[in-house]
Amino acid sequence: MPAAVAEALVVGAHGRHVVIEKPDGERLLAHLRGKKNACVVGDRVRWQAAGDEAVVEGLVPRRNLLTRQDEWRTKSFAANIDLLLIVVAGEPMFSESQLARALIAAEDAGIASAILLNKIDLPAAAAAREKLRPYAAMGVPVVETSLASDPVASRERLAASLAGRTTLVLGPSGMGKSTLINLMVPRADAQVGEISQALQSGRHTTTTTTWYWLDDTRQAALLDSPGFQEFGLMHIEPSRLAELMPDLRAQLGQCRFYNCTHRHEPGCGVLAAAGRGEIAPNRLRIYTALRDELESGQRKG
Hints:
- By secondary structure, the chain is an alpha/beta fold.
- Helices cover 29% and strands 25% of the residues.
- It has helices at 96-109, 125-131, 133-137, 151-162, 177-184, 188-198, 246-249, 269-275, 281-300; strands at 6-14, 17-21, 27-32, 44-50, 53-59, 65-69, 74-79, 83-89, 112-118, 142-144, 166-170, 210-213, 221-224.
- The strands form three sheets. Strands 10-9-8-11-13-12 form a six-stranded mixed beta sheet, with helices on both faces. A five-stranded mixed barrel has the order 1-2-3-5-4. The protein has a two-stranded antiparallel sheet with strand order 6-7.
- β8 (83-89), α1 (96-109) and β9 (112-118) form a beta-alpha-beta unit.
- It is globular, with a radius of gyration of 21 Å.
- It starts with 5 loop residues before the first strand and ends with a helix.
C-alpha cells in the first residue's frame, strides 16, 4: 500500500534537499522528486514517506514568490510572504537604489512592504529620514527604531507589525538585520543550527533563506535572506517599470503618448509631475537608470 501524501512547510533548502515541517511541528529531511519540484523556503509542498526519508512529490500553488534576476541567473528569496521588511540606517548610509529595487520586486510579486529605519539615535538618522520622505509619502510604512540602544521599545514597536505574519527581512550588512533577528527571535542560533544539521551543511550557509518562528505558537515567522547588495530586476519588462513605482504610477494617465517612456517625450505626465515637485528628483533618476538597465539587458538577451 503506497504511503499517504500529506502537506508540509519548507523551512530550509540546500540544493536538492529541503527541511520540511509537518503541522505538528516535526521536521524531516526530504529530497525533491524531479526537477519540476524545485522549491524555496516558505513553499508548501505535498510529500510522502520513502523509507527513512521523505520525498517531495509536488508544490502547493504559491501566493507569491520574491525573485531577483541579473544577466546570468535568477535567485528566489522565499515564497508565500505576507510582508517584506527592508532594514536601512544612516550609518552607514543606505543605498536608495537598492531600496527602490527591493520595493519594485515586492510590488511586482504582490507583496506588502515596510521600511525599518534603524539607529535613529545616531546623528545621520536625520539625513536618512529625509531620504525616506518620498517613500512614506507614497504609502510605504516607515518604522523607526534603535535596535541596539533601545531594544525594549524597539521590540514593542515591531511586535504589532510582525504578529500573525510571515515577514521576509532584507538589508545590507551594517544596517542591523542580525540585531533585529536576535532581538525578535527566541533561540535564533538554535533554530539555525537545527536546520543546518538536518541539511548536513555543518554551518549556517549564507546563500539561502533562513526560517525563524517568532514564538512557540508558530503563528508568525521571520525569514532572513542574504544577497541584498546585488538586486537585479531583469525579470521585469521595461514598459512595466513605472507601474511598479507608486509615485510614477499615479501620473501614468496624463501622458500625451500611449507608449511614453517618461524620459524625454513632450507632454509626459511623469516629467510634468516631477517639474511640479510631486515626484522626488532621486526617484526620477532611479527610474531612468533602471529603465536604461532593463532595456540594455533585453538587447543583450
